[in-house]
Amino acid sequence: STHQTWGGRFSEPTDAFVAAFTASIGFDQRLYRHDIRGSIAHATMLARVGVLTPDECAAIVTGLGEIEAEIERGEIEWSVALEDIHMNIEARLTERIGTVGKKLHTGRSRNDQIATDIRLYLRDGIDAVASELTRLRRALIELASREADTVMPGFTHLQSAQPVTFGHHLLAWQEMLDRDQQRLLDARKRVNVMPLGAAALAGTSYPIDRHVTAELLGFERPAENSLDAVSDRDFAIEFTSFASLLMMHLSRMSEELVLWTSARFDFIDLPDRFCTGSSIMPQKKNPDVPELVRGKTGRVYGHMISLLTLMKSQPLAYNKDNQEDKEPLFDTLDTVLGSLRAFADMMPAVVAKRDNMALAARQGFATATDLADYLVRRGIAFRDAHEIVGHAVAYGIEQDRDLSQMSLDELQRFSDHIGEDIFEVLTLEGSVAARNHIGGTAPDQVRAAADRARRALDVL
Ligand code: ARG
After folding, report:
1. How many other C-beta atoms can be found within 10 angstroms of the C-beta atom of residue 325?
2. Which pLDDT band, with edges at 50, 70 and 90, does 2 fall under?
3. Based on the number of CB atoms within 10 Å of its own CB, is 69 exposed (0-12), middle (13-18) or buried (19 or more)?
4. Which fold has domain 7-106?
5. Position in ligand 1 atom list of the atom nearest CA 326
6. Is residue 189 a contact partner of residue 220, using CB atoms and an 8 Å limit?
7. 381 CB neighbour count, 10 Å cutoff
8. What is the mean pLDDT of residues 52-71?
9. Ligand 1 pocket, mutate which of 6, 83, 84 (most atoms under 8 A from CB)
10. Considering only CA atoms, which residue is closest to atom 12 of ligand 1?
């Protein structure tokens, strides 16, 4: 026999390289708090059903608490020979409290432990992500209220299309994030199910009470099936797919922020503290934060594909493959939390360059649709109105003048249905104010939508 935890049936120690190759302590150490929490709940349950005596349970619980403090003080030296966080903590427990520490693992397997640990860890992670998401959404809503009257060009195909309000644009972002947050909360329900009691794969002959353990750990319920409880990682895949959609949205926002800070657009200013300079070009101020968030999207997509591929051919129940779930999952959490934090800190400090936005909205014939709609209100069929305005635009391109810069005489060359009141219609303010229905870009609608969004967040 060897010194290892499972050494009983072995006749030689693990090859040194294999020990290092198969160890997970390098990355699963961050689960220590959740591992200890799970162990305390397990021991407490074992005492309640009479498998441990109250004294044994008390010694284990105290010992685990002391180990947690030791780890927090940085006093624990993780051992690769002890492979993972579970065995590192268990070995330390027995070192501290003696043989009774060896009773903790009664009716339990590391397979249950790791499945439990990552669910507890991810549950905390999800709550942290939800709170950063809420913070970002609040920032967008406040900025949107401030910029409800600010007119900018709205684009399709990145070509000037119609004037919109900047507040409306920002609330489009907040809608995307609202759906992301709903997906996150939905995924949380399936994370919050307890594997403990699976005892590796088949359940255990000890008279355990899984409802007690589940309640102690704040799980909604014990998992229904012991084989499934220890083996599937679909809940982690769900989280990475939520994260992929979120990063896709953050990346789209990033792209727009980068464009808007470019001198070609010059729509917004990002404060210096969210930008960096160039080591060679003294004039540069680069929008690094949105660029980096856009770039980080790729690794999150990659993690989702990693986990999907990791699971795709695994026979029931647990396989060592599953050890590969942690790094992608942890990095997804870190990346999403960091990106959200950067955005939530940055958005309140965005300054809209309102004059530049208005100037741009006046270029590119953004009110052409308004002129067509005006003609329709005077009885012309929309297709004919479209054609008439097309001619006016062609004339404007030739003259290098916007529709609003033409005289009434000039405009009437294209249709005698055009009257003096057209100039109100062709203003940016008139154009956006006219789109005054739920979901429209009118400033009043933006203010109402911001109020609704604020109230929805208050009851979240
Ligand atoms: N380090 C393992 C993992 O991350 C823990 C479970 C190991 N179980 C086992 N039977 N080898 O999945």
Report:
1. 21
2. low
3. exposed
4. Fumarase C; Chain B, domain 1 (1.10.275)
5. 4
6. yes
7. 10
8. 98
9. 84
10. 323
- Residues 133, 177: contact at Cβ < 8 Å? yes
- The residue whose CB lies within 8 Å of the most ligand 1 atoms, and thus the one to mutate among 114, 122, 201, 321, is 114
**Confidence at residue 370, expressed as pLDDT on a 0 to 100 scale:** 92
Domains 111-205+224-356 and 364-458 share a fold: no
Who's near 425: CB < 8 A, 6+ residues apart? Answer: 367, 370, 371, 373, 374, 431, 434
Q: For the chain, which residues make up each domain, given as ranges?
A: 7-106, 111-205+224-356, 364-458
Name the residue among 317, 328, 370 with its Cα closest to residue 163.
370
Cα(73) to centroid of ligand 1, in Å?
A: 26
Ligand 1 pocket member 24 (CB < 6 A): yes
Q: Which residues of 44-57 are buried (b: 16+ CB within 10 A; e: fewer)?
A: bbbbbeebbeeebb
Which residue out of 1, 3, 11, 157 is catalytically annotated? 157
Whole-angstrom distance, CA of residue 428 vs CA of residue 399: 21
Residue 192 tokens, joined:
């919050």
Q: Return the best residue to mutate from 18, 118, 320, 330 for the ligand 1 pocket (most ligand atoms within 8 A of CB).
A: 320
Topology of domain 364-458 in CATH is Ribonucleotide Reductase Protein R1; domain 1 (1.10.40)
Sign of CA dihedral 151, 152, 157, 159: positive
The fourth-level CATH superfamily of domain 111-205+224-356 is Fumarase/aspartase (Central domain) (1.20.200.10)
Average pLDDT over residues 251-260: 98
Distance CA 301, CA 334 (A): 14
What atom of ligand 1 comes closest to residue 85's alpha carbon?
1
CA atoms within 13 A on the CB side of 386: 3
DSSP secondary structure letter of residue 51: S
Asked if residues 118 and 38 have their Cβ atoms less than 8 Å apart, the reply is no
Task: Render pLDDT for 153-192 as a digit per residue (tens, 0 to 9).
Answer: 999 999 999 999 999 999 999 999 999 999 999 999 999 9
